[in-house]
Amino acid sequence: MKINLPLRLATLATVTFSSFIPFNTPVKAAGFEEQAIDQEGVIAIARPYGQNKYDLLVIEQIPGKQACWAENGSNPVLVDPLLLNFDFTGICRRATDSNGYSIRVDGTDLGLDYLLRLVPRNGELVLVGTPRVGSYSEIVLGSTKGLASGFMKIILNPGWQFSKRAYQGKALGHFYISGSKAAIAGDVAATPSNPSVTLNPDTNTTTTAGLKDISNNPYKTEIEKAVALGIVSGFEDNTFRPQDSVTREQFVSMAVDAIATVYKVDLATQPQRDMIPFKDVESSRWSANKIKWAQWNFLNVGNPNNTFQPTESITRAELIDTARRMAIHLKNQLDLPREIQQTQEPAKFSDISGSWAQTVITEMSGYCGVATPINETGTEFAPDRKATRDYTTAVLKRIVECVKSEAQQANNKTNQ
């Protein structure tokens, strides 16, 4: 990757990868199973952060180990997450974001269609599945039955329970909040392709339809798909700002989020090899954990000053070089051949001859059309031009979908 290099490598650097992180959240068509777990050994918690904000924390107690949490009171039940006071490794299992839990209804994983979140309503916090696609309806799964400061237990509504994702009979780290239409209270409404439960259809949700500045953008469809997948999001004023340039730290953040749509990313995992951190990325920086994780897994960069230059804009050539490294990383995690296979005829760009990234750009043009001309027209790639949010988003979405397609094809061959 060339993301921070004034140093121009003459040839592609070889990336060294190790399977440190298990593959446990790929495409939902990959044949995952559901495994029952002890309902008394798992808890959903509303975890406070910031100013009056809460996110979802799921904790599972490993039998025979020190207690992971304690409960007190009612309406709401207050939770003391004891795991915060000691090393919980080997004692508790926990999931802290959308890569670690999802909704499952009648055997269908709705993780790509719904985002689990906590919203305040009528004096309590309500756990809802917010649709990523505008034509779907909200799902209500439980609530805190009251409101107080601190950690609160989420009581699941009738018909919902905890289970675990499994593959070939082996439980994985991903939690399901699962149910069946027959058991869940409330009216059932059909969605375009998945089962769903409609309990609160009038709730306002933010969807890609609210992005008011992409209607004429050539990447509109890909931006909407990327937002739906959770790769990227718009801004609070319902804009996407497609022509804004992308800084190095912004891109790394987006890239890690894209990888997290394929398998669970644990930013707390410690590198299993020596790694010198970038001296211009303080540990308190908002992007520090993602940069560290990316440096360990796929960036493989450095320069004589050991700096990352996080606020510098990336170029289109640097973007494509990094996208290639992402693809190799994902293929390695999914036990796929690491070679970048050509899926189509590469484009013949008129302005990449002599560029340090010429070979990479050509190769990635033939890999699911990841590298394409400016605004998808003409023959200019403009390798040294700053990468914009719209094209960067399209590149990340293409990488994820291309690798997932390879994984699905490999899975189909195995099952034949």
TrEMBL record:
<feature type="domain" description="SLH">
    <location>
        <begin position="206"/>
        <end position="269"/>
    </location>
</feature>
<dbReference type="Pfam" id="PF12565">
    <property type="entry name" value="DUF3747"/>
</dbReference>
<dbReference type="InterPro" id="IPR022222">
    <property type="entry name" value="DUF3747"/>
</dbReference>
<feature type="domain" description="SLH">
    <location>
        <begin position="344"/>
        <end position="410"/>
    </location>
</feature>
<protein>
    <submittedName>
        <fullName>S-layer domain protein</fullName>
    </submittedName>
</protein>
<dbReference type="InterPro" id="IPR001119">
    <property type="entry name" value="SLH_dom"/>
</dbReference>
<feature type="domain" description="SLH">
    <location>
        <begin position="274"/>
        <end position="337"/>
    </location>
</feature>
<dbReference type="Pfam" id="PF00395">
    <property type="entry name" value="SLH"/>
</dbReference>
